[in-house]
Specification:
Radius of gyration: 21 Å
Distance between the termini: 45 Å
Shape: flat
Number of helices: 5
Structural class: mainly alpha
């Protein structure tokens, strides 16, 4: 029972760590990829005009002061969680509470990303919006072919 509980705690910690690292990686552009690479790729795929690029840049720049303290809080809480997870005495309630704090911060980031995304989508033409939506869907996954039946012996 104790082993199962510990495994759950470790899994929750790993999930929280992955979410935190993914968020930090996207922080440079207010959620649109580090060092402008993600935005450049999207801008090229959508064939944004110079005016649209300027509008998008303004949206992302305006978002930086909003996300900066959120990311700082996320880093702090992640450090706190790491300290709790590596403590000599495991305090399950404290780990759960810290994980809940991280989840709440991650939710704030997700809401922020949704808002910034809505602002970005508002500057797109209907054709660009359709292209963007098709980019979100990604490539179609082919149906797996069933394995050939084993030869009869």
């Amino acid at each position: 029972m104790q082993r199962n509980r510990m495994a759950k705690i470790v899994v929750m910690g790993c999930v929280a760590a992955l979410m935190a690292f993914a968020s930090i990686a996207q922080a440079d552009m207010g959620g649109w990829g580090g060092k402008h690479r993600g935005f450049r790729k999207i801008a090229h795929a959508l064939a944004l005009t110079d005016a649209q690029k300027a509008q998008a840049k303004a949206i992302f720049q305006a978002n930086k002061p909003v996300v900066k303290p959120i990311f700082a809080s996320l880093r702090t809480e992640r450090k706190n969680l790491q300290a709790l997870m590596h403590a000599d005495t495991i305090d399950e309630a404290a780990i759960r509470a810290e994980t809940a704090k991280i989840a709440a911060i991650q939710a704030d980031l997700n809401v922020n990303r949704a808002n910034v995304g809505a602002q970005f989508r508002a500057i797109l033409t209907p054709t660009q919006l359709a292209t963007l939506k098709s980019m979100w869907q990604g490539p179609a996954v082919p149906a797996a072919t069933p394995p050939a039946p084993a030869p009869a012996s």
